[in-house]
Amino acid sequence: MGVRKKQKRARAVSFKALLARGAVLAAMAVCIIAVLENKRIFVEDSANNHEEWKWDWYYRLKQYNIPVDVLFVGNSHLLTGINPYVFTEKTGLYCFLLGASGVGVADLYFTIEEAVKVQKPKVIVLETYAINDDEPYRLEKGKLNDQINSFRARRDTWLKIQSTFSLFDYHNVPIAWCETFRNHNYIFTKPDQLMRNLKGEGPRRRVRNDIYLGQFARFSKGLSPQTLGRYESEGAPVDGEKYEISKSSVKYVGKIARLCRENGIQLVFLTVPMYRGHVENYQVWHDRLAAHISPLSPYWLDLQALQLTDAGLGEVYGPAAFQDTYSANQHLTNYGMAVTAGVFAQYLDRIMPSLPDRRGERRWQDFVARFPR
């Protein structure tokens, strides 16, 4: 019996020693990663990170005591879909665009959650292109990177912790939180940048001091004759029959509607258009979307449908309004963004005439005077 007890005691001691060594190694690894993160050794070049600019300025408006009357939220279809400066000037309302390229409505729910915690807008406008068949756990690499960029740009650490396992599989959590994990391949793919980072000469994010309201203007030229010719010869590149809405999208658009109700915020849906020849069977797309969002809000401006049925609107949204591409994902030009701002301003004034008009306020006038021209 004595021998057996000694053997058990020896095994227990060795197991405890193994655990202790493992704990020491884990602590060393955490310390090394913390140093690498602090020294920004694996930082990527994000000097023009517009997701971070958005959050910078959204928080700055709070510091400047500037309210956000209308908050527009969406992915690149929204960010390149409406000009917030034109909208502000036409309505006398303070507005802001939040969101990130490539993300779905699940990510946008957590964006809205943080935004509402900072300050409560009177209206939240959700662009519908983000209501799609994406599932946060099954994103292809490009969309996963977009979701990580959006996640990292948010400021509220506790809300980010709460959202982590709603947006990422467990094996993607390290790359979502840590650039060392995300960019460790720089050792082989970007050794020059890695060496600059090690010397402290790595990229530094540019801070925007001009008033920034979140737009992502990218396209100055409309559809070319060659691209218009493809519509004539090849037909629409997108079929509305193939439009699907994931369970995740249904869940999170419902959560957005609930969050708005709980905070006394009016929810409005907006569909930024693509070229009228870009989608065939759009009525199928519209009807599938309507089945989910119509019970959540009485307000939906579907500009894709309207430009197909309203001759005047279809004329305003001519070829000059759309990015010169025949690919499935099409955005608006700078001109098209201004058109949407004007059309939506008229729509909002009609459905919510009681919203404030701040054009007589000196603070609003001073704010608008600093807009980029």
Compose a concise summary of this entry:
The protein is an alpha/beta fold.
Q: What does this molecule look like?
A:
A 5-stranded parallel sheet has the order 2-1-3-5-7, sandwiched between helices. It has a two-stranded parallel ribbon with strand order 4-6. The protein folds into 2 domains: about 1-40; about 50-140 and about 210-370, SGNH hydrolase (Rossmann fold, 3-Layer(aba) Sandwich), CATH 3.40.50. The longest helix is centred in the N-terminal third of the chain and has 37 residues, at about 1-40. The mean pLDDT is about 85. The chain has 18 helices and 7 strands. The protein is globular and about 95 Å long. With about 375 residues, it is of the alpha/beta class.
CATH architecture of the largest domain: 3-Layer(aba) Sandwich
Q: Multimeric state of these chains? A: single chain
| Beta-strand residue percentage | 5-15%
CATH T-level fold name of the largest domain: Rossmann fold
Widest sheet, order of strands: 2-1-3-5-7
- Whole-number count of domains: 2
Share of residues in helices: 40-55%
Low-confidence stretches: none
Distance between the termini: 90 Å
The CATH class assignment of the largest domain is: Alpha Beta
Number of helices: 18
What's the name of the CATH homologous superfamily of the largest domain? SGNH hydrolase
SS class: alpha/beta
Order of helices and strands: HHEHHEHEHHHHHHHEHEEHEHHHH
Mean pLDDT metric: 87
Main sheet? 5 strands, parallel
Q: Name the shape in a single word.
A: globular
Integer-rounded radius of gyration = 25 Å
The counted number of beta strands is 7
